[in-house]
Design a protein that fits this description.
The complex is a heterodimer of chains A (219) and B (115). With 219 residues, chain A is an alpha/beta fold. Chain A has one domain: Rossmann fold. In chain A, 36% of the residues lie in helices and 22% in strands. In chain A, strand 7, helix 7 and strand 8 form a beta-alpha-beta unit. The N and C termini of chain A lie far apart (63 Å). Chain B is an alpha+beta fold and 115 residues long. Chain B has one domain: hypothetical protein PF0899 fold, CATH 3.30.2320. In chain B, the strands form two sheets. In chain B, strands 2-1-6 form a three-stranded mixed beta sheet, covered by helices on one side. In chain B, helix 1 crosses helix 2. The chains are: A alpha/beta (219), B alpha+beta (115).
Chain lengths: 219, 115
Amino acid sequence: MSKTRLVEVRQKVLKENDVIARSLRQEFQAAGTFVVSLVSSPGTGKTAFLERLLGMLAARYRTAALVGDLATDNDAARLARSGVPVKQISTGTVCHLEAQMIRTALDGWTPANLELLFIENVGNLVCPSSYDLGEDMRLVLMSVTEGEDKPLKYPTIFNTADVAVITKMDLAAAAEFDAEAASRNIHSVRPGMEILKVSAKTGQGMGEFVQFLESRIGG
Amino acid sequence: MHELSIALSMLELVEAEAERRGGVRVTSIHLKLGALSGVVKEALVSAYELAREGTPLAECGLVIEDVPIRVYCPTCRAQRDVPSIYEIRCATCGTPTADIVSGREMEISAMEICE
């Protein structure tokens, strides 16, 4: 007669992703590459922010960017105007980047002596939160037009990110954006989180962001 | 919606585990799911039911154990619950803390096998 019994497994479901992410992190560290990933809703302005940022960093650091999108290479084409090497990752129907996609994109492409690598995730505030990409710092972006309660609607992504960036600050007055309420909500889901406010359009706060980034690279 | 790819990863992992144990039949999977795992439980259950069809695990059940968020409170010097996922602070004394002790789990803790 057959009988059932319970056996212990204790395996992380995303073990495979975690293993690849860990090896990527080790390789980046050995190569002296600081890796920053960006997550946000679609339309928050990740690409505009990154475009401005690459323009400011390109002359000082060997920089490159990976851009994830469901389809089209429009974002990569925009970023390439800054002169830094950019590679598109088309995820097809997948709503987030996984460590293996970073591994595949870097194969045979990694520019030599890279100091800074930016990874722009697919516009989505839910799915990317579960996947480690081997990054040193994860930025979560929200724009002033999205509402101050965004962190309360997507607590997990804010909790897994390291730094919050509030974009489109040039529209803050028009959108009647309440910066204090936004900060309060961010800190409610992620106590102590660093918050930086920028406008990629006017350049407001971009210098401070670069300074902040440099302090983290040094550390 | 990444629950389908999560469900597929689970099935893959369990099939490999069953194989490793000499091809035992798995009757249920026990999953620990943290409130901060980034996975919606209901969506995962539906995705799992869809994903298991036509596989050797078509009859295999899924038992989910919810793992609440726990933080280390520097004031109480102890592990504490939080009021909610929107309020990451000590439920006892109110100190905000980002020191998450548990709640991120997405782990197959055990499986029931038939032999």
